[in-house]
Amino acid sequence: MYRLYIALILMVIAAGVVTQPASGYWVWTPGSSKWENPRYAAKDTPEEQLEYAMAFYEQKNYKMAPREFKKLIKHYPLSKEAPTSQYYLGRIMEDLDKPYEAFKAYQKVIDLYPYTELVDEVIEREYKIGDLFFSGRKYQILGPLKMPAQDKAIEILKTVAENAPYGKYAEPAMFKTGMAHKQIADYDNAIMMFKGLIDSYPNSEFIDRARYQLAECSKLMSLRPDYDQTPTIVAREEFEDFIEKHPDSEMSKEAREIVDDLRLREAQNAYKIAEFYESRHKPESAVIYYRDIIQKYPGTELARKAKERLDAIRKE
To answer: Long-range contacts for 63-66 (Cβ within 8 Å, ≥24 apart)?
Structure first.
């Protein structure tokens, strides 16, 4: 009787099926030497598995499709169908209106399968997602709660430029990354991006705008300190450089007005420093700044006031 029981078990094993009421039926797979539930098993070939997953995707079954694409990646990670499966995980996230999650899925295509023919399309989709956040799309963080997402725009657009530095999206991605930094008042990184674009792509169609924004960010940085003139001087020099290189640009007129404004600000700052030294009873230091104002900004109201103070100090 015992031998008959063993023989029956062997026959069931040979048939490849054992019933498991609690979790469905399981199949013995000689290749893996394991019992596997068909629900979690992949098809016999990656081609079959991709076709199976695509059928769910085309039906817009976004519950089953991701599961089957992930199953292909898990069981056939080195197959030529694996990058396609990863790509469609990104497409599903886009279809579900989850752009940041889509970007993450697309980036895995680049990271894991850099030589796939899908790279160009993936980069284009990443760029469009980055541009979406750059243009004002907010990021949902909890339920209906959404927040501005310039940080997401920066992350995605910068990644696009790094993924394909010689691709058609590298230059606009770098420019918009700089603009996104500028929008959140991160002027140091904005300047770094604009300079990077100018140095790396000297013939870019974005050169004029990058130079102007570089000067603009330098100007905005100059608004911060009370006495340090360096940012203001750097900003003025950047605008002057822009005017010299692009004298006929439509932006040059505005740049000249900004240069005049910055020069006035330099004079005002110098006058404040001179007054500071006078208040600290250090007239010899104040004289240096008053003389500098008279020499650098002749004919201005500040030059006239500086001369009056200089005369008063000499009398004293």
So the answer is: 65/92, 66/92
pLDDT by residue for the chain (316 residues), tens digit each?
A: 555 545 555 554 455 444 444 445 555 555 445 555 566 687 889 999 999 999 999 999 999 999 999 999 999 999 999 999 999 999 999 999 999 999 999 999 999 999 999 999 999 999 999 999 998 876 554 444 445 578 899 999 999 999 999 999 999 999 999 999 998 888 889 999 999 999 999 999 999 999 999 888 887 776 654 555 666 777 777 888 888 888 888 888 888 888 788 878 888 888 888 887 788 777 887 887 888 888 888 878 888 988 888 888 888 7
Q: What is the pTM of this model?
A: 0.65
All structural domains of the chain: 206-316 (1.25.40.10)
| Separation of CA 278 from chain center | 49
Termini Cα distance of the chain: 126
Give the number of other CB atoms < 10 A from CB of residue 229: 15
